[in-house]
Amino acid sequence: MANDHMLKFVDRGQAYPVKRAADERADDFREIADRYAVPTAEDQAGRCSQCGVPYCSVHCPLHNHIPDWLRLTAEGRLREAYELSNATSTMPEICGRICPQDRLCEGNCVIEFSGHGAVTIGSVEKFITDTAWEEGWVEPLVPGPARGQSVAVIGAGPAGLSAAEYLRGNGYDVHVYDRHDRAGGLLTYGIPGFKLEKPVVMRRVDRLKAGGIVFHHGFAVGEDATLDALRQRHDAVLIATGVYRARALDVPGAADSGTLAALDYLTASNRKGFGDAVPAFDDGSLDAAGKHVVVIGGGDTAMDCVRTAIRQGAASVKCLYRRDRGNMPGSQREVGHAEEEGVEFIWLSAPAAFEDGGVVRARKMRLGQPDASGRRAPEPDPAGDFTLQADLVIKALGFDAEDLPTLWGAPELGVSRWGTVLVDGKTLMTSLDGVFAAGDIVRGASLVVWAIRDGRDVAATMHRWLKAKATSGRVAA
User: Fold this and answer.
1) Based on the domain organization, do 447 and 348 belong to the same domain?
2) Which whole-number Å values give the CA distances from 56 to 40, 47, 92, 103, in the listed order?
3) How far is CA 406 from each of CA 9, 176, 222, 224, rounded to the nearest angstrom?
4) In this predicted model, what pLDDT tens digit does every residue of 459-469 receive, in sequence order?
5) CA 360 to CA 389: how far, in whole Å?
6) Which residue range forms the structural domain that includes residue 454?
């Protein structure tokens, strides 16, 4: 029986892929763990309890068919497992690498609740699709019958790429416009290689290009064309730019201290990984080598920065976060990896001022009453201040939307008070007819898996709208 392969969590312990030693992995930007061997993947997939209400799927933004492809993996039916995994996600091997599984699928695993340790869903997901690439099971993107309509996708991040794939599959001519010289957005330039090696992203992009999606690199809307010009050129437009404007650090001396924005720092490091010339890195400005580094923030971007600084050979790396460990927004796994690699976390602390000579005056904090979100709000602790030596300070305080209506010469584009683009809840269309939006530019800075979900959803609503437009055009003719 098929179930003979499952429900093995009682006598089979949880086992993640073995991580390389911390001192070894801190010397390079390779991923920190290799993937499973086939027998191990099958064994770990077989720990799934096949519960009647799969909380793993419920808490996955894509609602992946997780128990089903775990069962297929346990039974050795890897190609079927891949096909099922691929049915709901355009990038399963990327989600397997960078999703915060401890907050989503694995964190809601019934076996985790029973004290046996969650099924290692993300590692199995990565294994399945990596195997599919090696075995040639990943099929080319085959466009549907040509519809004679074209779509512009602004932004080549996960939301834009996901939507582009579905729209191309439905037979549209798809043009992706992106300001960078490579597609992928944060997947390419924001996330370090030790979490997501870049060939993994590039092979996805290459597949889309081979399927006939046209990429316009180095294209800045507002400079190379207005939004209105793109609307005239295409039958529909998707805004999927993400949010990139770094939040300001409102601390005395911050403007004069040379504080770096996290994304500038990470982009420079990733460009060096590609072999690009990066003058600001080569002159030392964006290189942590030999420096005492202080990173401010407690999200996943802050974790990316501290772990990058370690790999660049920093003399020391400290992370200041104003709440305690239990209240930080970043992945606890990432914190653990960073600690293993030599990062020092100074919890309940925040910068108070930047002084001459690379001195950061920091303030001790404590948790007060819950704020509007329900989290206990940090407040100054009477215990006082302390100082840190910092040759390089990186702010990782989150991202806000850029002022798209002004940048793009489109004052009629409706935005919220936070600058995110407003859309109709059902159609995902903006205030402009035929212009849709999806991903972080709508929901604010969020997870890659949500961007992929949003790209999938908006592609479906755009398809319906474009079909109706074509029909009405034929009737009018």
Assistant:
1) no
2) 21, 14, 15, 10
3) 56, 21, 9, 15
4) 999 999 999 99
5) 6
6) 150-243+401-476
Shared domain for 232 and 310, answered yes or no, is no
- Contact criterion met (CB below 8 Å) for 228 and 360: no
Distance CA 362, CA 350 (A): 5
Q: Which of 61, 130, 18 is nearest to 457 (CA)?
A: 61
Q: How many residues does the chain have?
A: 477
Residues 81/69, Cβ–Cβ less than 8 Å: yes
User: What is the model's pTM?
Assistant: 0.94
> Using CA atoms, how far apart are residues 306 and 344, in angstroms rounded to an integer?
9
In eight-state DSSP terms, residue 50 is: -
Average pLDDT of span 151-173: 98
Task: Tell the residue number behind the tokens 């890897």, with chain if given.
Answer: 78
Burial 400-416 (b: 16+ CB within 10 A, else e): bbbebbeebebeebebe
Calpha distance 224→302 (Å, rounded): 33
Nearest alpha carbon to residue 165 among 157, 195, 475, 116? 157
Whole-Å CA distances, 347 to 352, 381, 394? 15, 12, 16
CA separation for the pair 66, 121 (Å, rounded): 8
Beta bridge partners of 394: 260, 295
Residues in contact with 202: Cβ distance below 8 Å, sequence separation at least 6, in sequence order: 182, 184, 188
In the listed set 395, 412, 441, which residue is the last one of a domain according to the structure? 395
CATH number of the structural domain spanning residue 129 = 1.10.1060.10
Q: Which of 395, 412, 443 is the last residue of a domain?
A: 395
The residues, ordered by sequence, that sit 6+ positions from 317 with a Cβ below 8 Å of its Cβ are 288, 293, 295, 306, 309, 310, 342, 343, 344
What's the pLDDT band for 8 if we cut at 50, 70, 90? Answer: low
Helical (H) or strand (E) element with 17: none
The total number of structural domains that make up the chain: 3
DSSP letters along 217-272, please?
TT--BTTTB-HHHHHHHSSEEEE-----EEPP--STTTTTTTPEEHHHHHHHHHHH
| Same-domain status, 255 and 385 | yes
Chain segment 433-444, per-residue pLDDT in tens = 999 999 999 999
**Torsion sign, CA atoms 177, 64, 465, 206:** positive
